[in-house]
Amino acid sequence: MITLYDIPAQVPGKSFSPNTFKARLAIAFKGLTFKTEYIEMPDIEARMKEIGAEPTTTKPDGSPKYTLPVIYDDATGKVVSDSLKIAEYLEVTYPDTPSLFPGGAHAPMHLFSDYFFPTVIKPAFFVFLSNIVFRFTPRGLENMRETREPIFKKTLEEVVPKGEAREAMLAATKAEFSKLAAMYAANGEPKAYFLGDVPSYADLIVVSFLIWIKLGFGEEHSDWKMISEKWDGGRWGKLLKVLEQFDVRT
Ligand SMILES: N[C@@H](CCC(=O)N[C@@H](CS)C(=O)NCC(=O)O)C(=O)O
Which positions fall inside the GST N-terminal domain (predicted)? Predict the structure, then answer.
């Protein structure tokens, strides 16, 4: 049994982090059974040290920073931090399950993993973040204020984009989604996936962010309907529909 460490929020289904969705979807895509342990943001470091997880990055002061997702697999005794490393671990450890790297396509997945957030999502990050940030648990929100407000040099309320600035951010992300849609379309229509005929980890990355965006806006919001139904002819809504079956909550 695999344990997935995730962050709780006040949203339907409790999970809301795009990075932890990547691991959640990858485990379910492989048909593996797992349970979730939810950890509040301010408790991540202590709990991860307790289970022997590696930090994934550094804090502004240079000290190690622990992030989720992390998994613990009791079949092997391994603890793995970082979404892409988790996908690699699952692929190697469970070779007889559906492949996240079909045909051994590891390099394209690493490239995609590096590219997707900074290029496609980041232009509208504050639009999406401000939709969801107030849905943290009270402790999570307090921690976000303590850790993020000094970095943003603004309160979380002041970070919420408005008016023309908001529209410009969404337009920039829309343009990047369109470039990605053209890459997908180069496989030939009506192929739905980044690698053409078969789903892969790249599609799970896109879907993880789409779930996060949808949770933030809410299903009925006109901006979410526009993104999922209108952007790139509804490609992203369709991709989500096919792959959201792997958003298994445990
Ligand atoms: N490179 C890491 C990034 C993970 C990450 O940034 N996780 C966020 C949640 S989306 C986190 O745990 N943040 C904790 C914090 O900022 O204290 C991965 O892909 O797993």
Answer: 7-98
Run of H or E including 149: helix 138-152
Low-confidence ranges of the chain (pLDDT < 50): none
Q: Show which of 101, 124, 147 is a domain's final residue.
A: 101
- Report if residue 117 sits inside a domain: yes
Distance of CA 247 to CAs 70, 221, 240, Å? Answer: 17, 21, 10
Ligand 1 first shell, C-beta below 6 A: 7, 17-19, 41, 44, 56, 67-69, 82-84
DSSP 3-state of 181: helix
Our measurement of the distance from residue 206's CA atom to the centroid of its chain's CA atoms, rounded to an integer in Å, reads 8
Sheet holding 70-73, edge to edge: 34-38, 2-6, 70-73, 78-81
Instruction: Please give the distance, rounded to the nearest whole angstrom, from the Cα atom of residue 19 to the centre of ligand 1.
Output: 6
Give the chain's domain count: 2
Residue 167 belongs to domain spanning: 104-245
Question: Given ligand 1 and candidates 5, 15, 19, which is best to mutate, with the most ligand atoms within 8 Å of its CB?
Answer: 19
